[in-house]
Amino acid sequence: MSDGLAYDTREGRWVLTAAVLGSGVAFLDGTVVNAALPAIGHDLNAGLASLQWTLTAYLLTLGSLLVVGGSLGDLYGRRRVFVAGLTGFAIASLGCAVAQNSGQLIVARCVQGAAAAALVPGSLALISASFRVEDRGRAIGAWSGLAGISTAIGPFVGGWLIDSVSWRLVFLINLPLSAVAIRVAVRHVPESRDEDSTHHVDIPGGLTLSIGLAGIVYALIEGPAGASRSTVAAAVVIGICGLIAFGVIEARSPQPMVPLVLFKSRQFSGANAVTVAVYAALGVATFVVVVHLQNDLGYSALGSGAALLPITAIMLALSARFGALAQRIGPRWPMTIGPLVVALGMAMLSQVDQGSSYLSGVLPGVVVLGFGLAITVAPLTAAVLAAVDDHHAGVGSAINNAAARIASLLAIATIPAVAGLADDFADGYRRALLISAVLAVIGGVLACFTIREAVPVQSAAHVPVGPSCLEPCMKVDRAA
Fold first, then answer.
1. Three-class SS string for the chain?
2. 59 Cβ partners below 8 Å, 6+ apart?
3. Residue 451: which residues within 8 A CB-CB, separation 6 or more?
4. For residues 463 and 380, is the Cβ–Cβ distance under 8 A?
5. How far apart are the C-alpha atoms of 327 and 324, rounded to whole Å?
6. 335: nearest Cα among 397, 272, 264, 400
7. Whole-angstrom Cα distance, residue 411 to residue 429?
8. At what angle do helices 425-450 and 332-349 cross, to 10 degrees?
9. pTM for this entry
10. Of 31, 135, 137, 316, whose CB has the highest number of CB atoms within 10 Å?
11. Cα–Cα dist 241/86, whole Å
12. Dihedral sign from CA coordinates of 42, 47, 52, 55
């Protein structure tokens, strides 16, 4: 028997409870914020650009600091960093709830994303570090299912709070949940760290990536919104310089945040390219569909959130089955076919307009989109992790997670302007979804040409399946 906690023990259940509550806070927040956007826009008099920033500010700091957060857990203690992330997330959530204008909300969302960058890697790392090897897969499976339940009820709870009281409660609900998770973690979760750590955290890499992305995203969002040419040009220059500096730092660092050597693997590079294409498409689709249902079709916040619930149900029911299929036949064909099905679902949703009923107009596209994601996500995870050795499993998963976040970030910043959402949302909605469908098709084509037909079978502990399509690729396992 290996060292660690057994699954069927009181101590093991406490660890699982802490991990589920911690990840559940982040997952719940992700599923309800989209539904709150129209109410936020109305209450704070925020335009399309401000609503874009409400999403991208969170994605910006989360995506660029995820690997830093995982490294901090390895170095200073996974429980300590997990608790710090929960504390910061709760404080930032309070800031979101009391924001009096869109600027304050955006700043609070940036802080929320930075805190989540410490929280998200720690959730699974606690399980991997605490449970014995023979129980780890079972514990992660339970984590996926229980966290999936919190995600599934998110649209109902969030929609009811928005419709009945205020969008501000969407953020305030994080405070008691975080408090309970912190108490459980402090009292019942054993501390762990990487004793072989080199005591190096690539903070310069994380900061330069954040600065580079912030400059580019600012130009993409504020340029179409009317910012002066000189301001946009300065943002572009800052963004490009930041990204160049990031590349130089990563190439020279002895312990880089993003080990460039991993990208020599054709499969690793290909799987991450597929991730970028599919999650860029998904980020835009979930953004515009919820707003379209509320603003143009008259759905309530509860109704628009519940409209996408079949996607989560299909993912929970079928992702593990398609993951098992990919282990038998290899991930290439699921990763090729899945994005094509995703594209079909998005094309179907692009035809939803005023007068469309839910059963005949919205639900078919939602179901097809859900099937496409179920086919894609688990094989994609397996392909990424099979392309790296065990020593790099954690950072490989973190890079893939960050790629998904950053892809959504850039897509939400870019595609609405290209589609003309600010000029005519109804027409722009259709174009945005068709552009997203094209991106998904590109993802399927990339998979066909870059992914091997057979890969080594990974243990269940190394292939967690994210519990929600609206919080994609939350699968960082720094302790793997």
1. CCCCECCCCHHHHHHHHHHHHHHHHHHHHHHHHHHHHHHHHHHCCCCHHHHHHHHHHHHHHHHHHHHHHHHHHHHHCHHHHHHHHHHHHHHHHHHHHCCCCHHHHHHHHHHHHHHHHHHHHHHHHHHHHHECHHHHHHHHHHHHHHHHHHHHHHHHHHHHHHHHCCCHHHHHCHHHHHHHHHHHHHHHCCCCCCCCCCCCCCHHHHHHHHHHHHHHHHHHHHHHHCCCHHHHHHHHHHHHHHHHHHHHHHHHCCCCCCCHHHHHCHHHHHHHHHHHHHHHHHHHHHHHHHHHHHHCCCCCHHHHHHHCHHHHHHHHHHHHHHHHHHHHHCCHHHHHHHHHHHHHHHHHHCCCCCCCCHHHHHHHHHHHHHHHHHHHHHHHHHHHHHCCCHHHHHHHHHHHHHHHHHHHHHHHHHHHHHHCCCCCHHHHHHHHHHHHHHHHHHHHHHHHHHCCCCCCCCCHHHCCCCCCCCCCCCCCCCCC
2. 113, 283, 405, 406, 408, 409, 412
3. 267, 270, 271, 274, 330, 331, 332, 335, 336, 383
4. no
5. 5
6. 272
7. 14
8. 170
9. 0.80
10. 31
11. 33
12. negative
One digit per residue, pLDDT tens: the chain, 480 residues?
457 788 788 888 898 888 888 888 877 776 678 888 999 999 999 988 899 999 888 888 888 888 788 778 878 888 999 999 999 999 999 999 999 999 999 999 999 999 988 887 777 778 777 888 777 767 766 776 676 666 667 777 788 888 888 999 999 999 999 999 999 999 988 888 766 665 677 888 888 988 998 899 888 888 887 788 899 999 999 999 999 999 999 888 877 877 888 888 899 999 999 999 999 999 999 889 989 999 889 999 888 888 988 988 888 788 878 888 887 888 899 999 999 999 999 999 999 998 899 999 999 999 999 999 999 988 887 788 778 775 666 677 778 878 888 898 889 989 998 999 888 888 899 999 999 999 999 999 999 999 986 544 443 333 333 333 444 333 333 333
Nearest to 16 by CA among 27, 5, 26, 25: 5
In Å, what is the CA distance from 105 to each residue of 12, 50, 52, 84? Answer: 38, 9, 12, 21
CB neighbours of residue 449 within 10 Å: 10
Tokens found for residue 147: 């966290």
Nearest-CA neighbor of 290 among 9, 92, 32, 41?
32
Tokens found for residue 426: 């109804």
Over the Cα atoms of the chain, what is R_g?
A: 21
The amino acid present at 144, given as its one-letter code, is S
Task: Name the residue with tokens 């410490």.
Answer: 118
